[in-house]
Amino acid sequence: MFARWRWLAGVGVSFAATFAFAAAVQVWPKLDGVPNFFIGLPDSQNAQHPIDRESYGEGWFWMGRYDDGSASFINFLVRNIGPGDNKGTVDVTIWEPSGKTHMARVAFNKGSFQASRERLDVRVGDNRVWGSHPTYHVKLTEKDIAVDLTYQAQLPGFAINSGRVTYGSPDDFYSVYTTVPRARITGTITTPAGTRQVGGYGYSDHGVVTMLPHEYSRHWYTLRAANDKYTLNFLEFTVPPKFGGARVSLGIFGADGKILYGGADYTLTPSDLVTESKFAVAYPQKFNFQIDRPGKVRVEGTYSVKTMMHSIDVLAQLNAVERMVAKFFAKSYVLRFLVNVDATVTLPDGTTDHFQAPGVAEVVDIQ
Q1: Based on the structure, what is the number of domains in the chain?
Q2: N or C, where is the chain less crowded by C-beta within 10 Å?
Q3: From the CB of residue 210, how many other CB atoms can be counted at a distance below 10 Å?
Q4: What CATH number is given to the structural domain containing 120?
Q5: Are 153 and 136 in contact (CB under 8 A)?
């Protein structure tokens, strides 16, 4: 989500997308002067795209799910809100199967931030994310957490048309580009428990936004799931009522190194609502989904919550100045879960297969 204050933060229910909703909102439009991306993204799309306005924000999000049961969430975020431009944060969260969550955040100013405008290469002090398809690297050390990871993409990057949702003006938008729908990760992770070698599956996206989070979104659902053969990713959020309350969706299904489906024409239906105890945030325990592209692929099944990893009050993670600004707009909470995917896949030749995989899901609630 670009993650998740995802500058973020943000969701949907059962939804078969159209590409324009309330008069002011366009979802994934083709925009004049903006390249239309589908399967495969140019290296330049993952570079920094700075915009001279107060509400500009840009993020590079990297997730990992490892063979030992742990998971990582890393976000490089730059923004202009408040005094000064090109400042931001680097966030890292490591979740261990024991239930322990390790978190670190460092704030930076313009002087310690560097980013290429031609390719992915973002540096904050000694922390860095860089690379080009299909090989990317994430390296950082903050407090008692360190990661040194290589993402080897196994699916091409993806976006729908311009990758943007626009709100009345082409200059008011949220955008997301899936840099790596699926990668094989290798490297090391260090926490207070020590340093260990890891291997697993990963996901990354990159986004640019010119609006404050509460202005363009309300609730979000995301899913990142993979086994040895299949990959399934969902991202959905709800547009605020003043823009018509539309739901924005992006789904990707891949098999054996190819994207078989990418788009917004699918359904995702949550059920079994419960309330999280720490912040009293409601979330679904089960989601039914269906991708149906006759003659191409059909995927129908569920994903269900297995374990709540952690719940995070986004405002509590901000520094004093950021909190002063943000508290006037909205409260934001991030809930993360380990989930199980269970689905039937019908391939283009008519054969069927069983898709069962672990995954990581998020619910983001902006109040």
Answers
A1: 1
A2: C
A3: 24
A4: 2.40.370.10
A5: yes
